[in-house]
Amino acid sequence: MGDIRNKAEELGGKAKEVAGEVTDNRRLENEGKADQTKAQAKDKLSDAGEAIKHKSDEALGKFQDRK
Fold first, then answer.
1. What pLDDT, on the 0 to 100 scale, is given for residue 61?
2. Which of 1, 29, 50, 60 is the most exposed place for a label (fewest CB within 10 A)?
3. 8 A C-beta contact, residue 19 and residue 32
4. How do the domains of the chain map onto residue ranges?
5. What is the DSSP string of 12-64?
6. Which InterPro entries does its entry note (predicted)?
7. Cα–Cα–Cα angle for 38, 20, 23, nearest 5°?
8. Structure confidence at residue 33 (pLDDT)
9. pLDDT value at position 1?
């Protein structure tokens, strides 16, 4: 579910950026870029968390197999 929210936030940021470019509104353009960066960072953190969970599950499985 977080991936969908992050993608929506990224798309909203892109829309703000474009609207800022079209209207020559630097504040809106920069706000859109910031929204995109924040969404991308959240997505990367989510990916890292999933990778850590996968590796810990894998290690736990190996430990349990040894019993």
1. 79
2. 1
3. yes
4. 2-66
5. HHHHHHHHHHHHT-HHHHHHHHHHHHHHHHHHHHHHHHHHHHHHHHHHHHHHH
6. CsbD, YjbJ_sf
7. 175
8. 98
9. 59
Q: How many C-beta neighbours within 10 Å does residue 56 have?
A: 10
Residues of the chain with pLDDT under 50: none
Which amino acid appears at position 30 of this protein? N
Distance between CA atoms of 27 and 7, rounded to whole angstroms? 22
Which tokens hold the place of 60? 């736990």
Query: How many whole angstroms separate alpha carbon 35 and alpha carbon 43?
Result: 12
Identify the residue whose tokens are 């991936």: 3
Length of the chain, please? 67
